[in-house]
Design goal:
Low-confidence stretches: 2-18, 210-214
Structural class: alpha/beta
Strand content: 15-25%
Number of helices: 6
Mean pLDDT: 86
Oligomer: single chain
Largest sheet: 6 strands, mixed
Strand order of the largest sheet: 5-10-9-6-7-8
Number of strands: 10
Order of helices and strands: HEEHEEEHEHEEHEEH
Distance between the termini: 67 Å
């Protein structure tokens, strides 16, 4: 019994020490207070991620904008491996699944509710740009138990989507919207349907196509 209590005390001391020594960093990699960290996280514009050390945690921006240096090569690789043609006149939405994690394996979602959620997402994307999202996963055999397997996933060819946009494992999943000229807007971590539609609108605006913005 004494040994058991001693083990518990050691574990509790270890957790307490770790909590006390945890250091917080902003998106600029500068150390900040826990209060500032929590306040910034609550804006919804940032995502909490592991830092460079085991006792470091940092913030990253949820959205990233940029332009692919060689979109033609990216497009060719995707099309040749997936047999899916990417639009040459409208944005393409990639829904990315990184594999099981505590975020996408929790919650009350069912195969039926997840299918319905994504059907609504797809209708919204089609209304905006007349293309359907492309569902790409890191490993098609690593699906969660909340119904993701009902979606039309394809394996990320040579991990090109992961290497280009999602170099870390962002919780739940992510998405990126890419224009035919290579401009893109990516979103890291859990997302709402509105976030995808908003990103499509932003990319269309950059393309000079307003379309139906309702």
């Amino acid at each position: 019994m004494k040994k058991l209590w001693l083990s518990l005390l050691i574990m509790m001391g270890s957790f307490y020490t770790k909590a006390q020594s945890l250091r917080y960093f902003g998106s600029d990699n500068n150390e900040i207070s826990k209060e500032k960290f929590d306040e910034t996280l609550e804006t919804g514009k940032f995502l909490r991620m592991p830092g460079d050390s085991i006792n470091h945690t940092k913030l990253i921006l949820r959205e990233e904008k940029g332009k692919l240096a060689d979109y033609a090569a990216f497009k060719k690789a995707i099309e040749s491996q997936t047999r899916k043609k990417l639009s040459e006149i409208s944005p393409t939405v990639f829904i990315y699944y990184p594999g099981k994690d505590p975020c996408n394996t929790s919650g009350a979602a069912t195969p039926a509710s997840k299918r319905a959620w994504h059907e609504e997402l797809q209708k919204g994307v089609w209304k905006l740009c007349e293309t359907k999202p492309l569902y790409v996963t890191k490993n098609i055999n690593d699906m969660d138990s909340t119904g993701s397997s009902v979606l039309p996933w394809i394996n990320d060819p040579e991990h090109i989507v992961e290497k280009t946009f999602f170099k870390q494992h962002y919780p739940c999943g992510s998405f990126v919207v890419i224009a035919p000229n290579g401009d893109y807007l990516s979103h890291f971590g859990e997302y709402a349907k509105d976030s995808v539609w908003k990103a499509v609108k932003q990319i269309k605006k950059q393309m000079g196509k307003t379309g139906d913005e309702s």
